[in-house]
Design a protein that fits this description.
Elements (H helix, E strand, L loop, with lengths): L6 H8 L14 H8 L9 E4 L3 H4 L6 H12 L3 H19 L9 E6 L5 E5 L18 H16 L3 E4 L4 E2 H4 L3 H14 L11 E2 L13 H22 L2
Parallel strand pairs: 1-4, 5-6
Antiparallel strand pairs: 2-3
Length: 239
């Protein structure tokens, strides 16, 4: 969630060290769990899941694809990057050159130590830049599979907290009924209280180049919404 939620802001507001581990690059939620679960402490950690709707449809991808996706974004292992260069040369070049594009109203820079993506805003944003379609909604089976995967982790003692994602209003307004249905199912399963005024959909001015990547102001709004869920869970956990 480094492109949508500020771990720094959550750390400052709760007094609890928080990290973003949500740059999944489409590798699927099972691969994400495998990548990070060795670092989870059942007794202390709250594991926040907040998938884009398309993420609920992706259980996992072949390991070699997952490794290439993650290494291309991180660029920390030169051997792996060399092996994956043929598959992701375009992405690697974008990363090396700052991954910025002056036709948008921002310039992506890099992840900080907490996993937040830093963004430099550029002047004169063009209007109507996001001609995007909403993500595909998960089928009943895909939602059941996602739900079952994390319910199993919850039964094993992990403290799972689901928080609804936020997406681009112009693209997804027609899918709002299904979005609300998905969120109702997942919030009930993982003990989240869903407020009536939760900002599921935001206007274009809060986004960068995709349905889910938020600019600094959009990230602030989403993080404020996240904090309400996190504070409620902390109050329950600390009783």
């Amino acid at each position: 969630m480094g492109l949508g939620v500020s771990a720094k802001m959550i750390s400052q507001r709760t007094g609890i060290q928080t990290w973003n581990t949500g740059l999944h690059a489409g590798i699927g939620y099972k691969n994400i769990w495998d990548l990070y679960s060795d670092n989870f402490d059942k007794a202390k950690d709250i594991i926040v899941i907040s998938p884009e709707t398309a993420m609920v449809t992706r259980t996992g991808r072949p390991l070699n694809v997952a490794v290439c996706e993650m290494s291309t974004l991180k660029l920390t292992n030169w051997k792996t990057n060399l092996l994956c260069a043929g598959r992701h040369s375009k992405r690697v070049m974008k990363k090396w050159t700052g991954w910025g594009d002056t036709k948008w109203n921002y310039r992506k820079q890099d992840f900080d130590e907490l996993g937040d993506y830093s963004v430099e805003l550029l002047p004169k944003p063009p209007s109507g830049r996001l001609a995007l379609k909403c993500d595909p909604m998960p089928s009943g089976k895909q939602l059941d599979d996602y739900l079952g995967f994390f319910e199993e982790k919850q039964e094993l003692g992990y403290n799972i907290l689901y928080i609804p994602s936020i997406t681009y209003k112009a693209a997804c307004l027609s899918s709002l009924a299904r979005i609300l249905e998905i969120n109702k199912t997942l919030t009930e399963a993982f003990g989240s209280k869903l407020p009536d005024d939760y900002p599921y959909l935001l206007e274009e001015k809060y986004f960068m180049e995709t349905l889910h990547h938020l600019n600094p102001e959009g990230r602030r709004i989403k993080t404020e919404a996240f904090l309400e869920f996190i504070k409620a869970r902390l109050a329950t956990t600390q009783q």
